[in-house]
Amino acid sequence: MKKKTMSIGGATYDLFVRVPHTIVETHDKKKSFTLPLGEKVRVEDITETCGGGACNTSVGLARLGQDAYFEGVFASDQWGEKLMKNMQTEGVRTEYAMVVENEVSSFSIILSASSGERVILYEQGTNTHLHEVNFDKDVLPEMDWIYLNHIHEETCDIQDDIVQMLAHREKAHLTWNPGGCQISKGITSPHNASLLKETDILLVNKEEAFAFTGKQSIDDALRVLIEAGVRVACITDGSNGTIATDGTNRYHCPILKGIEVLDTTGAGDAFGTGLTWAFLEGMTLSESLRAGTINAASVVAHLGAQAGLLTNTEMCAKLKQISLIVEVTSFE
Description:
The protein contains 10 helices and 17 strands. The protein is an alpha/beta fold. The longest helix has 16 residues.
């Protein structure tokens, strides 16, 4: 049966520019693109796609068979029109999206090399305009699951509304993927501390986890997050896979081997989408981690954040076909 989900956050129109690998250089073990001033660099391909955290997760959940809603802000420009049309074509409910005049929708230019390296040049645009005054909080109690994606620092006031609703919830659950402004303030800031107590699934990568918790090991970071009230904490660690805990057990899910990585944009959103879908379907944490990992592997094999997102039928088939063993140990 379809469950109602609400993805809250940004939508961005992405222009992918495939650049030659020859402009990738390594200095002091750090890779960078080198673009000599005054020269012309011939690109290999240009692709327009839709992205942004809430756009990606709402499309992902819709493909996985959920009744997916989006709440965010577009401008009434060509990028906003394309973003809206894309979500509606994918079956996402957009009646809670706000369209503003005389503004620019969020837009990014993604320089991407054939080996997977990328640099994102972005304009926040209307993603900064989601505020308490235009945030429709009354619809939240109707949802089975809320997915709070990265939000701009100027929109953090909506966290209070989400906390108030979840504190008196009858059914709504929360997946939270905190963004830069939340990460930098840490888990003890009042906004974050309140929201962590209401979070069912927290998703961060290793670097974000260390900055958010002030710890320098994955297990210590997981422990602090559980103590803060999170039900399930997940930390992704690139090629090392994902480490998660529910406070009782520690779970390690490896990445899928043999995947040709074309582009990593949207991998985290795909992982969180697959994980959340599996929880909605009543799966165990081990199986949910497998679903998230499989969805992310499909996305990185395609260009853009949404092309590889799996459908419900595809996901169910891959969960049966793919051997991906999650290691479970006691979390002490």
